[in-house]
Each structure stands twice: as C-alpha cells, then as structure tokens.
Amino acid sequence: MRVTTGGQATAEAVRAEGSTAVIGERSISRGATPQRRTVAHAPASRWARPPVYVVLMILGLAANLLSGHSHRLGLPISPDRILIPLALILLWRDPNRTRARWGAVATLMVLFVAWTLASMIWHGNLLTPSTQFALLDRTVMPFVMFLVGPLIFSTTGRRDLLLKGLTAMGLYLGVTAVLEVFAPQLVFPRYIVDPEVGMHFGRARGPFAGAEAMAMTLAVCMGAALVLAGRQLPRWSTLGLIVAPLALFGVVLTGTRSAWLGVAAGILVALVLSPALRRWIPAMLIAGTSGVVGAMIFLPSLVQSIFERSAANGPIYDRLSSNAAAFRVISDLPLTGIGWRRFYPHGSEWARQSDALPMNNAVIEVHSVILSRATELGLPAVVVFLLIIVLGPLRSAVPTGPIPGHPDLPGWRALSGYAVSVWLVAGLFGPLSNPMPNYSVWLIAGVASWGLTTWATPAPKPPGGELAGEADSPPRAYRAARTTSVP
C-alpha cells in the first residue's frame, strides 16, 4: 500500500507540480505486495540552494573580467585568483560531488602541460612571471575548467545558475560597450575610457581594455543568454531575450573582425546541431536585416567606422609577416619549437622583409592559437593539443539522445558547439591571450560533456540529501512530503 506522510495539502502540492515517486522498478498500487521498503523524495527543484563552490566559481568568472586591471581599483590581487581556487578546494572536499573517471582527454592534457613545463625548463624561463601566467591562463586553467565543469555544474539547477551568471555578465558588458561609444562619461570603471590604458582605444573594449577579449566574452554571453531564453524561467528568459541582441551589438562595436567571423560560424554550427533552433531562422533574418537597415538610417557614423575597420589592412600585414616568421621557426625547429612564450621577441631572427607586404612591426605575437603552439612547442605538442580539442571541446558538442534527469543538456551541447566554433575561428586570427574567453569557452564545453566523455556516476547521497542527477534539496512544499512503500 502507499502511505504518504505530511499534510494532505502538501501532498496535493506535490501532485500539482507533476511530481511522482517511483519505488524500485515500478510504482506500488493499493493491494499489491511490495518486494522492498524504499523511501524516495519528490524530485528536486531548480529553486534549491546550490553548494558554495558553485556560487564561488560563477563569482570567480565574473571577477575574471578585471584580470590584469584589478589593481586600478585598489585591489592587491585579482579576486578570481582567490575565488576559483577556493571553489576547486571546496569541490574536492565535498563527499557528495559527482565522481569522475580518468579518460584519454585528461591524460593528453597532463602530457601537454608536462611538455610545456619541460620547454620552460629547457629554455630557462620557468620562473619568469609572464610565462607562468601565460601557462596558467592559456593552458592549465582552461583544461581545469573543462575537467571540473561537469562536476561543479552537474545538475540542471546548477547549470541554469551558470547561464544566469553569464547572462548577467553579458548585460554589463553590452551596456558598457554601448556607453563607451555613445556616452563614455557614464562608463565604470573609469580606466576603460583612459587612452593610456590597454589598447584598441576608440573601440568597445570593456574592463579588459582590449577589444578582442571584449568581443569574445560578449559572444559567449550572447550564446548563454539565448539558451537561457529557451529555458522557460520566469523573468530570466525575458532577460535572455534582451541581453542576446545587446551582446551581439556589443560585438559589432568592438570592431573585431575575427569575432564577427566567429559569431557567424558559431550560429551556423548551432543551427546544424540543434534542429529546434532552425524554426527561428526567419525571425533571425528579419531581426538582422532590421538591425542593419536601422543602423544605416540612424547611426551612419557607426556604419562608416565599421566599413573602415573592415577595410583596414595594416594589422593584416603585421599578422601575415609574423605568421610567416612562425612557419620558418617550425621549419628549423620542428620537434621542440622556439620555446614557450619566446617567439616574442626572439622570433625576430626569423623575420624577413617581404617584397609584397609592408612590415610595420618586425615581430608581434603569433596571431593563431594552433600555429603559436606549433611555433613555441613543436609539432608533437601541437598534435597532442589538436587531439585534446577534438576529443574534448569538439566532442562535447556532438548531439546524443536524451539523458534521464538532464533535459537541458541538448541545449548545452548546441551552446558548446557555438562557443567552441567562435573560439576556434577567432583563434585562427588572434592569440586569445586574455583568460576570460578561454575560461568560459572551455568551461561550457566541459559542462556540455556530462555523460559524453568521462563523467557519469554521481556519488551516493546521504539520507535526506539531494537525489543523484538532480538539484540540491527541494523547496519546502516538496521537503514536507515523503512517499513510502510499506509491506
């Protein structure tokens, strides 16, 4: 027989939410003889309070917006350098965390980091702060984000919270981009509009003081806002619909052509991966056409600056010359490369004046992520790096069948396909040196990899704790009811 403890009103509230409790492998009806005694809670809710490390990780991402410039606000250290490690420590100490199985991707990541450390030791720059931070921000931490993403954000409720955090960041960055161009006196922090700080002054560059990082982060936040809009969450879905076009407009204001191409490629990939998105193609075309026509009518100076930026050839010549020098390095040092973070400025030895291209800067940083890895670490290392990308972020975007208890994962895989495409395309034309784009893209890919790569089995939960695969403890209406099968 079925015995329900708790008030009748509470039980009705549980039924009203469409909740059921399944005992064993089948429901127990009146008069049946049950085979075991089992207590099951009603399904958990997205309204539950998340573990502290979930909140700390999201706050760490938000604080990473200030990376490299936190001292301008009087902070002795960037807060993300504290918040993210603290989140990882608390995750490790949580006995109820989702368990991970070691896989090929993790092995390749360890191998790549070890190779990079060996390169730093061999060339004598292991203790150089700039090379250490480059290793952390471009390699170690993105790998860590991918590996811990499915552990920290292992439930629908936690993943929704991450979407909300990224959408809130997109709101701030989008508003900041608009203010930088049209009302710079309102921008905060003030160093953003200081021409002596950072680079790309005159374009939307946000708290990064750099247009490339601003564009990449806005692009990621735009994708998260669109996924949040489809989650049917009161108020938050509306906010997602507002933030997505605002973030896209911000990407345009950055004047970063690689990000423009990346967003276009990412949207196409998302449409291929998610058939549900294809019904929005007419609306997207109408909105895009309306935006272009409206800008031409009401913002002619902006349209002119965009065309001027699109036609600028100076940066292209610099990158072609630098990349040509990088290929010469690979030809001369195919196995070891020139050394981690040594191409700039030591790559000048391989620079040549071209008869076809003017040379403005003798050597700049290699403006391609993959080419940079091959130049600095050699061809064996870049093969490992490519395998990591294929078996990790790219695989996380592969559509699969539904996973019980995780109805939101198909949307996350479409988001991963979009974000990774933006990162790869932009990475063909830029070094992606700022940590935030790397952190966010690899974290999204890791979250989307739940159940695809090495993440599957949650740890056992104590009595009264959260159910495997669900959010944390349910709200009060659910906690009051327990459905018990009694022999």
Automatic annotation (TrEMBL):
Single GO MF descriptor: ligase activity
Keywords: Ligase, Membrane, Transmembrane, Transmembrane helix
Residues annotated as domain O-antigen ligase-related: 246-386
Source superkingdom: Bacteria
CC terms in the record's Gene Ontology section: membrane
A Pfam family that the UniProt record links to this protein: Wzy_C
Protein location: Membrane
Protein's name in the database: O-antigen ligase family protein
Source organism phylogeny: Bacteria, Bacillati, Actinomycetota, Actinomycetes, Micrococcales
